[in-house]
Design goal:
The chain is an alpha/beta fold. The chain has helices spanning 3-23, 34-37, 43-57, 87-102, 131-138, 183-188, 209-214; strands at 71-74, 77-78, 107-110, 144-153, 156-164, 171-180. The protein has two domains: 1-39; 41-214, Rossmann fold. 35% of the residues lie in helices and 18% in strands. Strands 1, 2, 3, 4, 5 and 6 form a six-stranded mixed β-sheet that branches. α3 packs across α4 (87-102).
Length: 215
């Protein structure tokens, strides 16, 4: 590499570094660089990432533009208390719904209520005691049901999302994401940072309950 090429390369690195410094990136949250390079988590971008991965990897593939074959979308719930959701869980559901509609899928939201809860310690149950009952209740023939959980300790959150075939309860697609809870996300749970200098690198919480239902 000659001197001229080296100078161009160094300038390119400098431009990239300055761009990251000015724009910020949520990937630096919960690290030593968070103070200078961190940024708020964009929940719309997160919902888009989850949706795009789930729909891309689904097998059998999902069918867009099928009004009679919607995707049922449930509220994301706390993995440690499946009867509990949050402002975060509801917002994530809404943004995922918007993205699915943008991709051409017919959707139907199922708001969290007692009859649609995932019951713990019951491998035969997902959203209610009878998936066919859900379809009959809503007069739908759903091609899939989206379910999701989250769990967190300190500032680290683990999100699990699954697309389930309602006919046989098989998982047709899954996506997991690790999120550092910024101040906005913490506020959704009524929390705040314990220390402005904490990096909060922690061990993962227990395995997602969704996994235990199907394996």
């Amino acid at each position: 590499m000659n001197n001229h090429t080296t100078i161009i390369f160094l300038r390119l690195i400098l431009v990239i570094a300055l761009t990251l410094f000015l724009a910020g990136c949520s990937k630096f949250n919960c690290t030593m660089l968070e103070k200078n390079l961190g940024a708020d988590e964009n929940l719309i971008t997160l919902a888009t990432r989850i949706t795009d991965n789930l729909t891309r990897d689904a097998f059998p593939p999902l069918l867009p533009r099928q009004p009679d074959m919607p995707i049922l979308i449930t509220t994301f719930v706390d993995n440690n208390d499946l009867k509990k959701t949050s402002r975060f869980g509801r917002i994530l559901q809404e943004h995922i719904t918007s993205r699915l509609v943008g991709l051409g899928y017919t959707t139907k939201e199922l708001k969290l209520r007692d009859t649609l809860l995932m019951q713990e310690h019951s491998g035969e149950t997902m959203l209610s005691r009878n998936l066919q009952e859900i379809n009959a209740k809503h007069s739908l023939s759903a091609q899939s049901i989206l379910v999701g959980t989250y769990s967190y300790t300190d500032r680290t959150m683990y999100i699990s999302a699954r697309l389930i075939n309602p006919k046989d309860r098989t998982i047709i697609s899954s996506y997991d994401y690790r999120l550092c809870m910024d101040d906005n996300v913490l506020t959704m749970f009524g929390l705040k940072r314990q220390s402005p200098h904490a990096t909060d690198e922690i061990s993962p919480p227990r395995e997602s309950f969704i996994n235990t239902l199907f394996y």
